[in-house]
């Protein structure tokens, strides 16, 4: 295999394992278990191209250890959620129910959807035993996105308790490629998280770190010490860093190469061959792994740094390979309206000193505006020092964007597709092209969950000059307390 990339691309000086609060993962004292594969959410009704779903945030319990079950939260299940499948061109009518004892929201991370209410940020509270109905038509290409709560300042704790689930968008073009597509067999989500437990229970306050909360044990698809039986020669892994803080520096135990075919917003224009891959918080990567060279009974593990956390046991299958076209996908190349930077946002600080543009988040303040269907150049800067600083993952709601450069140089080889989250190295400026096709008020923020809860977040209004709109923006008190 030619031109295989062997490094993580990101600046090693900013890795989380150099942070003073960092601790490495440990193996829990439990037996190996089959990797849990989230069930696929079943529609309530299908009427042509109209599909009806109900998604419920609920409390549950999970038998993670011997003895007392662990109290967990999930969407339509005890922990994490059922995979939501969307198809480009179809319209979805979704009832969002809250059976928790506190307010939550349902944020569609990576979905091009109107804001601020349907997008599910903090302006879209669903109060205990209440519900919210939204309708949207999917108009973006196939991708792996996700659903998680966003009721700042409680986002981090609610995700820690278990609220997060994959969302898979499919389209006819990707289906024509005949990629691995048998869900749970050769096409699987891999939700990467870490958790600590005290007498079998989660205790977010005890685990809390203002600079991003880490867990002792890897929790993969809600499974401790997971094993997956490989029964097909080529597998598609839909990797999602769903951790509050931890970066995942992925490679196989024998440095077996794999092929990245997708990033946050869908297929890459060209497949990229790698044997190392780093995901900062909320980033996704779709990779193909060819196990044809292994024999039945072999075992290979996926590792982060040099820690094994997911074992693949090779079963029996007939060797075969996938021939990917070039280009893999034809992306709409965004053309900025001007070569000049129209907006510059600055992430600064660490711990409780984190700021976005020198300010803390205010739910009733619009920080910047952009006209709908215009393509602008943004610069995103991380002012942390190269020595002792940290990578800040930067996320924008309600759109996908394209990268132009990192500190004036080319972007990483696997960053030429659609993105909604990028890791920005210390002392680095990333230049992006960004276009919003939906109206609304949207968040942009650091996706270390404790940082966004602290206030490292701001709001942009996407407007149509011919059809001005006004939005009733809630205060944080309004969001947290239902007005009766």
UniProtKB/TrEMBL annotation:
Q: Which Gene3D superfamilies match?
A: Cupredoxins - blue copper proteins (2.60.40.420)
Q: What CDD domains does its record include?
A: CuRO_2_CueO_FtsP (cd13867), CuRO_3_CueO_FtsP (cd13890)
Q: Which InterPro entries match?
A: Cu-oxidase-like_N, Cu-oxidase_C, Cu-oxidase_fam, Cu_oxidase_CS, Cu_oxidase_Cu_BS, Cupredoxin
- Does the record's keyword annotation contain Disulfide bond? no
Keywords in alphabetical order, please: Metal-binding, Oxidoreductase
Q: Which GO terms describe its molecular function?
A: copper ion binding; oxidoreductase activity
- Per the record, the domain of life is Bacteria
Q: Where is the Plastocyanin-like domain?
A: 61-172, 338-461
- What is stated as this protein's family in its record? Belongs to the multicopper oxidase family.
Write the protein's name: Bilirubin oxidase
């Amino acid at each position: 295999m030619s031109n295989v990339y062997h490094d993580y691309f990101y600046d090693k000086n900013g890795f989380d394992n150099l942070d003073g609060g960092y601790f490495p993962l440990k193996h829990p004292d439990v037996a190996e278990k089959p990797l849990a594969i989230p069930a696929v959410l079943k529609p309530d009704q299908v009427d042509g191209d109209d599909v009806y779903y109900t998604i419920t945030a609920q409390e549950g319990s999970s038998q993670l250890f011997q003895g007392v079950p662990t109290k967990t939260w999930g969407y339509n299940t005890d922990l994490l959620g059922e995979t939501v499948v969307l198809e480009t061109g179809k319209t979805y009518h979704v009832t969002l129910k809250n059976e928790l004892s506190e307010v939550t929201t349902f944020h569609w991370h990576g979905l091009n959807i109107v804001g601020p209410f349907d997008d599910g940020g903090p302006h879209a509270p669903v109060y205990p035993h209440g519900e919210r109905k939204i309708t949207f038509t999917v108009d973006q290409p196939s991708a792996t996105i996700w659903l998680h709560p966003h009721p700042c300042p409680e986002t981090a704790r609610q995700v820690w308790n278990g609220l997060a689930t994959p969302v898979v968008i499919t389209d006819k073009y990707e289906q024509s490629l005949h990629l691995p597509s048998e869900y749970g067999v050769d096409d699987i989500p891999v939700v990467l998280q870490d958790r600590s437990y005290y007498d079998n229970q989660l205790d977010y306050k005890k685990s809390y770190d203002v600079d991003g909360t880490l867990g002792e044990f890897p929790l993969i698809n809600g499974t401790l010490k997971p094993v997956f039986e490989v029964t097909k020669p080529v597998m598609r892994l839909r990797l999602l860093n769903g951790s509050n803080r931890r970066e995942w520096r992925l490679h196989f135990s024998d440095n077996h190469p794999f092929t990245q075919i997708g990033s946050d917003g869908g297929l890459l224009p060209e497949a990229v061959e790698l044997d190392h891959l780093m995901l900062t918080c909320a980033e996704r990567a779709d990779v193909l792994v060819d196990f044809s060279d292994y024999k039945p009974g072999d075992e290979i593990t996926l590792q982060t740094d040099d820690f094994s956390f997911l074992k693949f046991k090779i079963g029996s299958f007939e060797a075969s390979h996938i021939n990917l076209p070039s280009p893999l996908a034809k992306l709409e190349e965004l053309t900025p309206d001007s070569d000049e930077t129209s907006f510059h946002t600055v992430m600064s600080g660490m711990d409780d000193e984190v700021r976005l543009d020198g300010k803390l988040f205010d739910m009733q303040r619009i920080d910047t505006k952009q006209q709908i269907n215009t393509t602008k150049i943004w610069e995103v800067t991380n002012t942390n020092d190269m020595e002792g600083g940290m990578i800040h993952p930067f996320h924008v709601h309600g759109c996908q964007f394209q990268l132009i450069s990192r500190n004036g140089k080319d972007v990483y080889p696997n960053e030429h597709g659609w993105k909604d989250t990028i890791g920005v190295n210390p002392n680095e400026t990333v230049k992006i092209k960004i276009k919003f096709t939906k109206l609304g008020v949207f968040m942009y923020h650091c996706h270390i969950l404790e940082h966004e809860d602290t206030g490292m977040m701001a709001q942009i209004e996407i407007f149509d000059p011919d059809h001005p709109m006004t939005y009733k923006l809630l205060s944080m008190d309004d969001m947290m307390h239902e007005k009766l």
